[in-house]
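Re-run with default settings, no changes from the original entry. Doing this only to confirm the output is reproducible before filing.
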Amino acid sequence: MTFLFAQKEVSGFVFDNAGSPLSGVNITEKGTSNSVSTDINGAYSIQVKEAAILIFSYFGFSKQEHETKEAVLNVFLSEEGGQILNEIIVTGTRAAPRSNTATALPIDIISANELASTGQLTFDKALQYRIPSFNTVQTPVNDATSLLDPYEIRNLGPSRTLVLINGKRKNLSSLLYIQPSPGRGETAADISAIPIDAIDRIEILRDGASAQYGSDAIAGVINIILKKSPDDGSITLRTGITSKGDGELLNISINNGSTIGNKGFLNYTVDFSKINLTNRAGKVDAEGDFNDFVRLLPNNPLNYVNDDNTLGNTTLTDAMTEAQINSLFEQYKVNFPADYNAKLATINQGNIAGKQAVDSFLKDQPYAANTNGTPETAAAKFLINGGLNLSNETELYYNAAYTYKKVNSFANYRAPYWMSIKNPFENPSIPNWRIATAYPTYLKDFFGNGTVASYKGYQPTFTGDLTDYNASLGFKSIKNGWNADASITIGGNSQIYTLDNTQNRSPLKDSNGNPIYQENSPISFKPGGSNFNHVIGNLDVFKILSDKISISFGSEFRSENFETIEGDKASWEGAGADSFAGTTPKEAGKWNRYNWGAYFDLAYDLTKDFLVNATLRQEEYSDFGSATVWKISSRYKFLDDKITLRASVSTGFRAPTLHQIYTQKSQYTFNAGGGIEVTRIINNVSPEAHILGITKLTPEKSTNTTIGIGARPLKYFNITIDYYNIAITDRIALGDVVNTPQFGKVAWFENSFDSKTSGLDLVMNYSNLGLGNGQLAFNLSGNITFENKRISDVASDNFGATIEALTFTSRPKTKWILGTNYKVKKLDFYLNNSYFGKTTFKQSGLDSNLRTEFSPKIVTDLGINFLVTTKLTLALNIDNAFNILPKWKFKSENAAGAAILNDPAQIKNQFNLITFNGRYSQMTYGGSQFSQLGTQFSLSLNYKL
């Protein structure tokens, strides 16, 4: 006998508590094997018996049972334990997404409103005042570094933080930091290229993630989640200025969207901005500049050499040692007393005249006409983010961004006495014993009106043109509970440089003996640039096997291309363009590599409280071989989910970037006590490296351990504390400049040392506190660095105190952020206090018995939002309201250092050595722990479309 039961169809959607659809939710008719899964939109449809009960189960969420009284049944699932769901986290796991409190890893979530409330124009600066372990600051020296400021998580350098956009890897910048400031030798993705108004939220994983994402994720991951809303568009107009009356800001941004039929959406952002120059140059010490650029030493044999390269009756040769020349000089004083005394008198006269020239210039220009601050920047940013449902099981998604940025900055001003005979590229027709104020006569024609009196020096200008783009196209599908995501991502960054108001002072001559440069030099140069791009293919698959087990696996193929672009000949030949030497044909080139990676991830809920997650990854690189890394993380909740314990241990790796492997470049740098000098960077695959015995670069390897606890004792109060320990072996560094007999002063990259970094992160939030007619919220977050040090010997003698300090102590040892938000009727009030702890430097030229320390400071930011109408909001921000500036002082390392600090003359000398004679008195030539701009005001109008 056959029994027939009445059947009916039940359909609907399944959401999380934030209203986001959940795909892959298991829906089972109770007591049967009849089941389906939600599709890409969270929708389902199932045939069941009359009066059936449906069980809704999803990995990491509480099961729910519902009677099927109606034909339409929409369900909202909550995190296990029934707590209010904060956010669905997609970063840090390759298995099914989880809520913030259910993840086994420390993750910060920063909303778009929080970013906007900082009043900062760019994304990187907004994060500086929201995430304690994130640090960035404007570099004290501009030129190419003005195009992107270095940033980092947990003091580990820019190269060790991976940046994702909607979960896809963003391209690196083509810029390699080579200045002696924090971030030296590193490169990073340009996160300032992403307009803030296009961002829905930021997920920052503060844990090693190489097993999940591959190279560059040793310190953590920044995942930028873009807006998806087809509605809620707005136009924002921002303006601002510093309390010094410079740095004027004008910005207009449009974010809007639209639906595509009833199956898709498109969200877009257009952003234009202009920021004017700021100048925070310090007063220049005349004595210091005189000693660096003008003063001739009476006991220097080279000051007595004749035009025909003779000293007395002996011709000097390149083969002679310093000791041999000094010996000849002693004979010269005895054997040619008349010549010696005559030249000595001329030297003394020259020094007197030179000192007068320096004093006269600095009397009129006490700041030496220098411009030291943030550059003039104009930017245009475009971004789209969209999706289209092709069917109930398949979705097409895409995003694309393009940024153009033009930056104008200045090199150090070339005072007239910079072209004196002490300059290494002086006109050879001027004898070494000539009066020190002599300079090549053609300069008065280039930078004056042809008269000696009109020549007041010159200031080279630097213009950088940057383009940055990225785009992803992908398909998501779900079938029988299997979620697949296939995508292709492209991205690139290009920088082209221009120099103006400068010259090539090289004494090169053509075949007829006529000068090629000097009086025939151009005053505008194209010194080249750099380019980087990548193409990435990803395939990611995950399936929720049950309400306890989820698996995922996938692969990635990535091709990278790096190019250094040759400059015009005049920019590099001989001495090259003064202030920024161009890229030579030998230094220019194109390089490529590719890699393939695959991973497998298993997440297992042993109980509803106890989670274990394991990931294994294999990488194969075309240029250095393979790497195998793994990660195990776990989370345990108890006391009705009010307390969560979590821990992870992982191995990681970071492949040297193509920039680090192949970059070769000449650069102008400040030589403490010796003015400006030109040095070179040689790469590890060059003939020079082979001659010097420099080995090729290999990947860095790391071991990361994190242990944390989270608590939610009250509904609106939560706190997390996480300890981290990161050990890196074969760490790559750009070393100090070394004076080699074969190639002069050069620096190079190498796997220099092993390091250890440990510390503590704390995040605490308390919201929805009733106060009067409003709601009050507090948040306190902090980062404490316990250790950040080298734990091995260095590979060679090119890693000195300066590089060690830039690597380990140039970022705040402690950083805290205390924020308060009060909402009452139409007003929002923000008060944010950022505590920047002590930083320590060992600047080049500083006496080894001393160090410099930047004192701890608190920077206070204020913000007020006023809802004028339901569509119009007025916002006023006062950043650094109390005009707090970085402040540093000398500290002694020992008794010898204390003796120096008891001598005002020696203190002044040390000050000159590390500030370029006062030019960089606020930050020092090495940098500081936060901005030198002081108070900044900004006003914005936001109109909802």
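The chain has three domains: 7-78, 107-281+374-414+458-944, 286-364. Confidence is low (pLDDT under 50) at residues 81-86, 421-437.
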